[in-house]
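Dissemination and training. As part of the outreach component of the grant, students in the summer workshop were shown how a complex can be specified as a set of sequence lines and then modelled as a single object. The example used during the hands-on session is reproduced here so that future cohorts can follow it. Participants entered these lines:
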Amino acid sequence: MTGLERALCYLRREIPDKIPVWHESVYLTWKMSGIPLNEYLLNAKKIARAHIEYIKRYRVDICGVNVDMWWPYEPFGIEVDIRENIVQPKPSPVRKAPDPEFYENLEYHDPFKSKRGKIMKEAWSIVSREVGDKVLLRSGWLGPVGSLAVLVGVPELMRDMLLIPDAVLKAIREVMLDWTVDFITGVCEAHMPNLTNICWVMVPYDHLLSSPDYWDLIAKFDIECFERVRGRLGRDLPITTHHCGSSPALDYIVEKFGRYINEIQYWWPGSDYPLVKAVNKFGDRVSIMAGIDHTRTLVLGTPADVEAMVKKAIDIAKGRCSFALGPGCGIGYWTPEENLLAIVKARDKYGTYP
Amino acid sequence: MVKDHLKEVFNCCLSFKYFEIEDIINKALREGISPSDIRNVLCEALKEALQRFRKRVYAIPQLYAVCCTFERGLNIVKLPSKVKGRVMIGTLGSVHYVGKDIVKLALMADGFEVIDLGENLTPEQVVKAVEEVRPDIVALSTLVIICLPLQKRVIQLLEEKGLRDKVKVLIGGPVTSKEWAKEIKADGWATDAFDAVKEANKLMRELKGSSEELLKLRGKEVMM
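and obtained this result:
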């Protein structure tokens, strides 16, 4: 099977030849390009080539193509500071004090009118045409509330939802909803003809990060987005997910989004939701991706430790649910190479189906 | 009367009345309530919010809303001059500040003097500030995994500059762990603001213990 066939089997909850493996690293991919970060970010061909190289080197079945998480918001005026090894946004205008006018005056902007928006579209198109029929490409995107949170700062937005809810809701309803639909539709179109899924970031549904009081409201906008994007594309694509928080509200996610999503991906070992609990509770309904801790074992352990971690996850999930191996989030560029290679080696040893 | 005003300040923080806190404190001051009483009740409100966060009654947004309200109130009544110790705090490599800001305010509420270096720091900037400010504790926050090596680099630089035994290093952030703290030889690791206050107090006791030990040793040298 190709990685794509393996991954699609997993999403359909059928049995593939092996457990599929996802991982990706924005910064390790950049390191592989061999050019400075500020040049890399503005070169679609280099971005694409480095991702194709990453996929080959680490033999992943599922991978994303992306750079930093700030570029989609540049049309709104977000500015980034590109340092030697990292891209970071400049401070949010509502950092210290809640400001209703900021939300009330927020205006819609074409998501791909920025220079970097065009560059990313070209990079996706190259990667999708070259390897999109061999691996499953997925990059997670936030819904309207999550996108506004990136724009103004996550805790600031949640704080402002407590302090100035009307202004915040106006901005979500009148600006961010349309923007998110247009943005995700554009991402999907750039992956044609090998568009296989829409990957939705579920981080807002986290016990530490946001209040359960808001989850229904956030979900209402997310679901409206799913439906509008699907309507625009004219086809019913599988929805993959991403959750890198340390206290994921998986029960809520499965209950609320069960009829829309094909998988839950989350951080275990690492978060407070044990894999065995997820397998027992949702394994009969939805595919599950987890098993790799990118913060401890992968960076501090040996290849033997990585093998033991992978084996443990496979022992819990194999045969009990449709399972894929993946870390909680993007991998640090300083993760030992031998540990990354040990993931697929361990999968081949323990994760093959008869 | 005094109790009513103080209760109002406390409740104002915990009901996220960011826009009202200044008026409520000014009203209490006009009624003759001392700034130190108001400060204490603000600190109690923050501690209560931290407890609620620990018990999962609050998530980060509620805790952050209380922090913003607390900080606004504290700007009026200021902190006392007598402090437990001096902590220098900052976020390495990225612009994330919420965890760092919450820890900062929690330490201030517990009686520490806190010097906030800000965010997006390089290890060199942190070590230069340690040389200049000479804090008791340097608290390093890291949210994103690619910035973890910067914590290690700070400790290496402190060693190279001969400063390592003069300052305690406390680390935190969701991608850090006890194992990581051990690997880089940090003195303390905290999972949240509540823990950070506990750890900072522990490190201060260690510092006090080692300086008393040093004084005893010096005393012996003099005697000899």
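Chain A has a mean pLDDT of 94. Students were then asked to discuss how this feature might be tested experimentally.
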